């Protein structure tokens, strides 16, 4: 299977060939800070390959000292991008960076003890098709 994606500004485009083995929502404080949201939403693969189609020079990698937490992002717009982790043996792809359909549903929530205190029963909140007027 081939998946495509890009950053928000379009400077970086990529292709992932292969299948994802896992999809998790991570609530650790590192993922919350990195995403600016309630959790990180990442797809994982030990066999898929990543190819930069454009803008590879704009990709910035960050490794949080003293942890296994790493992320890549566009140097222009800051959008989360795929990264090779664990000495290049694991491809981690932010689900929101894909333009193609995500083939998996999340399989679970990780580090729920670190969950933000406001991240409860969010499905019960009113839903709007656009910004409410």
Protein model, in words:
By secondary structure, the protein is mainly β. The chain has one domain: Beta Complex (Metal Binding Protein, Guanine Nucleotide Exchange Factor, Chain A), CATH 2.170.150. Helix content is 5%, strand content 38%. It has one helix at residues 29-35; strands at residues 2-6, 13-17, 22-26, 40-45, 49-54, 59-63, 70-74, 80-81, 83-85, 90-94, 108-110. The strands form three sheets. The protein has a five-stranded mixed β-sheet. It has a three-stranded antiparallel β-sheet with strand order 1-2-5, with no helix packed on it. Strand 7 and strand 8 form a beta hairpin. The radius of gyration is 15 Å and the shape is globular. The protein starts with a strand and ends in a 23-residue tail after the last strand. The model has no long low-confidence stretch (mean pLDDT 94).
What is this structure, in a nutshell?
The chain has 133 residues and is mainly beta.
CATH class: Mainly Beta
Order of helices and strands: EEEHEEEEEEEE
Strand order of the largest sheet: 9-10-4-3-11
How many individual domains?
Answer: 1
Coarse structural class: mainly beta
Question: Notable features of this structure?
Answer:
single chain, 133 residues, mainly beta, Metal Binding Protein, Guanine Nucleotide Exchange Factor, Chain A, 5-stranded mixed sheet, 3-stranded antiparallel sheet, 1 helix
SSE arrangement:
Blueprint: E1 2-6, E2 13-17, E3 22-26, H1 29-35, E4 40-45, E5 49-54, E6 59-63, E7 70-74, E8 80-81, E9 83-85, E10 90-94, E11 108-110
Parallel strand pairs: 3-11
Antiparallel strand pairs: 1-2, 2-5, 3-4, 4-10, 6-7, 7-8, 9-10
């Amino acid at each position: 299977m081939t998946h495509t994606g890009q950053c928000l500004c379009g400077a970086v485009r990529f292709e992932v060939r292969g299948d994802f083995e896992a999809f998790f929502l991570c609530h650790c404080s590192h993922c919350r800070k990195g995403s600016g949201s309630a959790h990180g939403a990442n797809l994982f693969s030990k066999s898929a390959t990543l190819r930069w189609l454009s803008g590879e020079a704009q990709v910035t990698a960050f490794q949080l000292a003293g942890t296994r937490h790493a992320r890549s992002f566009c140097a222009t717009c800051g959008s989360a991008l795929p990264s090779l982790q664990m000495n290049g043996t694991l491809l981690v792809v932010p689900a929101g960076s894909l333009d193609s359909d995500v083939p998996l549903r999340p399989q679970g929530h990780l580090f729920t003890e670190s969950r933000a205190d406001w991240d409860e029963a969010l499905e019960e909140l009113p839903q709007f098709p656009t910004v409410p007027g």
